[in-house]
Structures are given as C-alpha cells and as structure tokens.
From TrEMBL:
Its main location: cytoplasm. It catalyses: UDP-N-acetyl-alpha-D-glucosamine + H2O = aldehydo-N-acetyl-D-mannosamine + UDP + H(+); an N-acyl-D-mannosamine + ATP = an N-acyl-D-mannosamine 6-phosphate + ADP + H(+). Zn(2+) binds at residues 541, 551, 553, 558. Residues 54-345 form the UDP-N-acetylglucosamine 2-epimerase domain. InterPro entries: ATPase_NBD, ROK, UDP-GlcNAc_Epase, UDP_GlcNAc_Epimerase_2_dom. Keywords: Allosteric enzyme, ATP-binding, Cytoplasm, Hydrolase, Kinase, Metal-binding, Multifunctional enzyme, Nucleotide-binding, Phosphoprotein, Transferase, Zinc. Homodimer. Homotetramer. Homohexamer. The hexameric form exhibits both enzyme activities, whereas the dimeric form only catalyzes the phosphorylation of N-acyl-D-mannosamine. This is Bifunctional UDP-N-acetylglucosamine 2-epimerase/N-acetylmannosamine kinase. GO terms for biological process: UDP-N-acetylglucosamine metabolic process. Pathway: Amino-sugar metabolism; N-acetylneuraminate biosynthesis. It comes from Danionella cerebrum. Gene3D superfamilies: 3.30.420.40, Glycogen Phosphorylase B (3.40.50.2000). It holds the Pfam family Epimerase_2. In the N-terminal section; belongs to the UDP-N-acetylglucosamine 2-epimerase family.
Amino acid sequence: SVQVKNTHELYYLRTQCVQEKMEQLEKPSKDPLRICVATCNRADYSKLAPIINTFRMIVQDEFDIGSQLHTIVRGEDEAAMVESVGLALVKLPDVLQRLKPDILLVHGDRFDALALATAAALMNIRILHLEGGEVSGTIDDSIRHAISKLAHYHAVCTRSAERHLISMCEDHSRILLAGCPSYDKLLSAYQRDDYADIIKSWLGADVKEESYIVALQHPVTTDIKNSIKIYELMLDALVSFNKKTLILFPNIDAGSKEMVRVMRRKGIEQHPNFRAVKHVPFDQFIQLVAHAGCMIGNSSCGVREAGAFGTPVVNLGTRQTGRETGENVLHIYGDGNAVQRILKFLQAIDLSEPLQKKFCFPPVKECISQDIDHILETQSALSVDLGGTNLRVGIVSMKGKVVKKYNQLNPKTFEERIDLILNMCKQAMADAVHLNCRILGVGVSTGGRVNPQDGKVLHSTKLINEWTSVDIRTPLSSALHLPVWVDNDGNCAALAERKFGHGKGVENFVTIITGTGIGGGIIQHNELIHGHTFCAAELGHIMVSLEGPECMCGSRGCIEAYSSGLALQREAKRLHDEDLLLVEGMSLNNKEQVNATHLITAAHLGNSKAESVLHTAGTALGLGVVNILHMINPSLVILSGVLAADYEHRVGHVIRERALPTAQDTRVLVSELEDPALLGAASMVLDYTTRRTY
C-alpha cells in the first residue's frame, strides 16, 4: 500500500493511475460485459431501448427479460410511493444476485429507479446513470441527484448537466456528454411516410396534421393539491378549444388517482373531441407529437422531444422548472449519436478498477476557522525563493500579504546555500512569534527542474551552481521540524496567480515569467501540470525558429534565446560595442555593466535598433504563446516578471495576427503580484495545511 503524505504525492499517483488506465483500455477485453438494463415505466423505456428495449414493449421488441418485479403499491399517494420503494428493495437483492451484472443501467429520476440504484450500490454493482445532473423543480430533482451520488458513471444530455455533476463533486473522467438516447431514434424515425395513418388510427379519419392537440399532465408530488387544480383548469380549457385531443393518463406518482377522478368526473373519456389512452408506442407517439398543432401539459417530452419537431408547447405548472428549453432544444439534447457514445463508454469501463467511488471536491471560498488559535494568530507560511543572484525568505499570511522579507546573496556552494536557508528560516520563525504569525510549513521556489513528490531538484539552471540532484526537503524539514514543499519557480508563479492573482477562479490558464530566463506554469482544470518527467511548462524552451541564437539549454531558436533578460543583455552589449545603443538622454559610466534595462530605455527613447531588438523579442514570445494556445487552449495568459509590461502589447498583437480564429480572443494580462515566487511557494503550504485543493 502507498501512504499519501501530501497532495503533491496524491497528484502524481493519480496521474500514474490515469496513464495505466489508458494503457489497459487499449487492450482488448477478454470477457463481454454483463449489463443489466432496468426499466420502470413507459417514459424511461424510450431512453433505454436504443441501448439494449414496461413488459409488453420489451416482448414486442424481442428482448429476453431476465426478471420482472411487481413493486408498485396501489394508492397513488406519498405513502404508496414510499412503500413501493421499500417493496422493491426487498425483492431486488434476489434478482441482482441471480443476474450477477457487471453494470446496472438506470435512467432518470423515478422513485423506483432510486430503489434500483440503492440496491445495486449496496451490493457493489457498478451503476451507469442516464440523464443525471438535470434540473426540473420537483421531488424528482432530489431523487435524480441521489441516484447520481450512488452512480459510478454518468451519461448526460447537456453541457449544463455535465457542469452540475462536476459541481456535485462527481469525477469528470467518469462523465460522458452523450446526448439523449431517445433522440437517436427520434431524429431518424419521425419523418415516416405513414404518419397520416397513425393520426387516423388514434384520432379518427377526419383529423389532419396540426389540427389536433396532445395533452399529457403528471402530478407534482411536492404540491399535489395545486397540481390537481391546474389539471382541472387544463381540462376545462381543452374542452373549450373544441379541438380533437389525444390525452394520456398521468403517471402513477402520488396524486395521479385524484387526477384520474377529475378526468372521469368531467366525462373526458366519453367526450367526442377526446381520445384518452394509457399508453402509445414510442415510435407512434413520435409521429403524433411531431405533427400536432401543439402539446399541452408538464411532461418532459414537451420541453425536450417536442423541440426537435418545432411543435409548440404550453408548459403548465412547476414540474419542469429549471429544465433547459427553447428553440435550440434540438442542439442541446442530442445529434442522433448518443447510443454509440454510450456503448463505447460502457466498453471502456475497467472492471478491475476499485469499486469505491472517488469524489472531486471543488475549491472553496476563503474561510479561516475561528478557533482560539486562529483568532490569536495569523496562519502563515515560510517562503523561500532561490534565484540566480539572490536568496529570499518571506513570511506570507493566508491572504497573500508578505508580512516580512529577508534577502541575501545566493551562495555558490550547496552546503553554504543550505546553511544560509536554515539560518534565514530560523530568524523568520523567531520573528513570526512577535509578528503574531503561526508558521504552518515551508514552501521553496527554485529554478531548474524539480520533482515535487520527493522534494528534489533534478537539474538546475546554469545560474545556480551545485544545485543538481539535491534533496531540499529532507535537511530543511529535519532542522525546522516543519513540512516542506518544493517546486519550480515557474510553477510557483502559476500557483500564486491561482490563489492570489488574475488566475483566481479561472479553470485553465498559463503564467509566463519574463526575467533573467523565461519560464512558466500551466493550470489545467484547476490542477498544476507537472508532466511525466516534471518538465511541463518549460515554456522558455519552446522553439520558434529552426535557426537562431544559441540558448543556454544547448539548442537554438528557443524563446529564451530571444526574449529573456540575458538575451536582451546580449543584444544590448552588441549594440553598445557598435556604438549604437546610447541615445540622447542616456549615459553609461565605464564601471557600469550594460544590461537589458539599458536596451529597453534606449527603445523607449526612440533608438530604432533597440526598438527592433525589443520587437523581435516580443514577437518570439508571442509566437511561443500562440503555440501554447494551440496545444492546451487556456482562457487566460498571464505575463509575469520584470519584462512583462514591455511584452504585453506585442504578444497580444501576435496572437491576433497568427493564432487560429477561436484562440484570437484569449486574454493577455500583466501580473499584479509583487512577489509571485514567494506567494506561490506559500500557496503550496497554505492550501495543503488548511485542507484546500492543491
């Protein structure tokens, strides 16, 4: 077994599991899946039938019935619904033990479907739930969401439903945006040539298309009295319309018995303009709805299937409150390929995976516990920033305030560097007591490639000596008696933006550091991306030219070779050597070293040569950003570091000029954080020790 000590380890274990899962999915399955499809009524059968196919309908479609249960307790009131669920729970274990399915397919939001899902979950049977995540405004919502929480896999109809399930902490990787299964049959079958014969068979020979009404009203179990009143008013209105009407009996929810009594009291079954029926086969029902003048009631068919035909619908009451509706309903609910997606999804389920569900809790708003320690002290982190020149330590509060900073030159040897870090941290810890800060841990931001799982620097930049294959976590944690997190400075900048900056609340964004070198970090689906060998987001080494200046990595044409502070310094020296750098308003004494600042100053003062260098550097960075947009498609790019403001305009121009149309509107912002490295290192500590997502 593996003991997960921190969320860095958890992240990497999860990525390894995903990779292994994908490898397993590529292998052919040896044994066919045993799928149990459970249908409870006429409504859910139209959703389930295309994937597999109320008893007579299944027999007509020539499917074998593994078992049939009579679980509905007559009474059609709230107590009868509860008793029906209980009766189903008593009978289902024997059936499921005999059938031994690998997966149970359950649809929708019916109380009897809840019994199925409950039984299967308790018997460790995997559940695929169809059409979860939707909103309709009655007790059906509670039942639907309860089934979703019991289910292991989900096939949803709409993007909104998918988002609802994700916000309910369901695993995004187990949610399939499939579309509505009934639409597959509906879109291919409703234009039958015999629709006129179907209309005649149900409504009479003299009835023409668009001259009749289809009515279907169900009880609202959370407001039975009012729903019966609405039903009575609907029947009165239908009688007054003097139009041929096909009216279907309500379902068996609580209140249905009273609705049927209202129908019979008004003589609807004997009325010459009405045809009252308990059931119409789905393929014929499609034709009747498609060619009706309008549909009236509160059935989900009215707000969903009817939209595919453009049939006008009058939706009564609150039963469908919250449902996605409108003229575009056809595009919302399906394209005719839902069944193939669901079948492929089923085939991809790995039965060797652990059965226990995992929930993906989203980040929560800032909320500091109010126990006495938290009231008296400010929860804080020690941040360490290892740069090529300086070594900085900071005390950072929960809200991103750098309470105190310490700065020293970075020593040249490993031993001196570790000793200095420890001394600076100990001094900061002593000061923290007087500053009323409680130190929760240490976060280290460093240049180079880092394995955050082990707290080690794998390969350093040339700017930091003796910093390759070194363990930072162990000596710091042992001496300071605090947990220690370590990551690359570019990743820390991205974490800082996610917690304190422009990236707060943004699901997908990229941070690019423009300083001595070029680096960055990638946040995808609110997760920091490290990559297989921890070199993801080495953005400075994206090549934008097959030839070009030599980079410190040994290659040529990298962004860093054009756009880094060192690259600008190189060009500034070249211009200075050629007496092309200084312009009026600039001066440089003999002892002063030429650097990137001089080049930028010259460009701002109108030096055309310096302007050209800065233009090329900005273009190279912009091309790199375009490549990033085309690879991972973030919604936001954040430029950080001392050169960010000088590159912002040019990068935005290159994106609009060179990116694909769908990426040209990507926002580019300059970071407003003063110390992204210190803040990012602190965020690792604060997010984990306060039990937030990292």
